[in-house]
Design brief:
Blueprint (H helix, E strand, L loop, with lengths): L1 H27 L3 H16 L5 H25 L22
Length: about 100
């Protein structure tokens, strides 16, 4: 259990650090796509061939912090900022490709 508590403490500290840096005004304007992009960016850095164990850990903590921040923002705002295509009807299928 101590290891889990340490990990959660690191994630909480990362959320606080990032919150001071970016603020809720910035977060409130992020679409779901923005949040996913930020998370994937740090997961990519963690997965980078040649990343040190410290870099892997640091980037996983950042990705986890972003996920928690995204969920918190979604709950606080009852959703994410709208994407440019939100509210549009989605086509039932893609058009056939012909030659």
């Amino acid at each position: 259990m101590a290891m889990s508590e340490t990990i959660f403490d690191e994630i909480i500290k990362e959320c606080a650090r990032a919150g001071k840096m970016w603020g809720s005004d910035f977060d409130d304007n992020n679409t779901l796509n923005d949040w996913i992009t930020y998370v994937v960016m740090y997961l990519g850095k963690a997965a980078y061939h040649g990343a040190t164990p410290n870099e892997v850990h640091k980037n996983l903590i950042k990705a986890a912090g972003l996920l928690i921040s995204a969920i918190g923002t979604e709950l606080d705002n009852e959703g994410f900022a709208p994407r440019h295509y939100d509210g549009q009807s989605r086509p039932k299928s893609m058009p056939e490709i012909t030659r």
